[in-house]
Amino acid sequence: MPHRATVIFAHGMGQSNATWQMAFAKALAPQFPSVQWLLPQAPLRRVSINQGMLRPSWFDIWRLPPHPSEYDEQAITESISAIEDLILNQIHSGIEAKRIFLMGFSQGAALSLCVGLTTLNELGGIISMSGWLPPAYRSHITLGPSFPILWCHGTDDREIPISYGRDAVEFIKALPGSDGSRGNGVVIRTYSGLKHAINDAELADIAAFLGAQLQS
C-alpha cells in the first residue's frame, strides 16, 4: 500500500534505530498501514557524560539530568538540518506537511521539539517521549505550533525528570498562538511508576493520538 503519511522518529542517546524499528513494527505499524516510519540513525559523536566515548548521539550531553545551560550548538544545528532534510524529502515526494509527524525518545524527543517548533512547515504533530526542550534553544522559538503535541512522561524518570517535561509544556503553552483554538494544544500524559522507558499504556496513547490526527 502506498504511504499517505510519515512518522519521523529520532532515538535516544546511545541507542540504535534498529531496536525501535522492531518495537514499532510490532506495536504501532500494523495499526497504520498507510504510514511510513522513518527512523534515522544518529552519527557517532564524543559524549561528555560518557568520558568522551563515541556513541550514537544527536548532540553532546554533559550530565543527566541535563543542566539548563547545556547547549551543543553545532551538533544541534547539524541534527536539525538532517531532520529538516527528511521532512523536505517527504514533501517533495508528495506527502502533505500536515501528514508528517515528528516523534522521539529522550534526546531524540528534544531534537524533534527543536525541529518542530522552528520549522516553516505546518506539520501534523509532535510526540515527545521522555523528552525535554533545551532552555538554551528556546530563544529560537517565537510562535506556538500550528499543530498538536502529545507529551508522554513517566513519573519516576530520573534521567529526564517529569519536572523537565512540565516546564517545557508550560513554555509551549505560553507561546503566542498556543491557546489551542486551532487544535494545536499540548496534551501531557503521565505514567505512574514508569522510569526512563516506555510501556504499553504509552504506546496506546500514541496510537490514539496518531489515529485521531490522521482522520482529521
UniProtKB/TrEMBL annotation:
InterPro entries named among the record's database cross-references: AB_hydrolase_fold, LYPA1-2/EST-like, PLipase/COase/thioEstase
GO molecular function, one term: palmitoyl-(protein) hydrolase activity
SUPFAM superfamilies: alpha/beta-Hydrolases
UniProt name for this protein: Acyl-protein thioesterase 1
Function per UniProt: Hydrolyzes fatty acids from S-acylated cysteine residues in proteins with a strong preference for palmitoylated G-alpha proteins over other acyl substrates. Mediates the deacylation of G-alpha proteins such as GPA1 in vivo, but has weak or no activity toward palmitoylated Ras proteins. Has weak lysophospholipase activity in vitro; however such activity may not exist in vivo.
GO cellular-component term (any): cytoplasm
EC number(s) per entry: 3.1.2.22
Organism of derivation: Coprinellus micaceus
UniProt KW Cell membrane keyword: no
Keyword Hydrolase: yes
Pfam families, A to Z: Abhydrolase_2 (PF02230)
Lineage: Eukaryota, Fungi, Dikarya, Basidiomycota, Agaricomycotina
Record key words, sorted: Fatty acid metabolism, Hydrolase, Lipid metabolism, Serine esterase
Catalyses which reaction(s): S-hexadecanoyl-L-cysteinyl-[protein] + H2O = L-cysteinyl-[protein] + hexadecanoate + H(+)
Protein family (similarity comment): Belongs to the AB hydrolase superfamily. AB hydrolase 2 family.
Domain named Phospholipase/carboxylesterase/thioesterase: residues: 2-211
GO biological process: fatty acid metabolic process
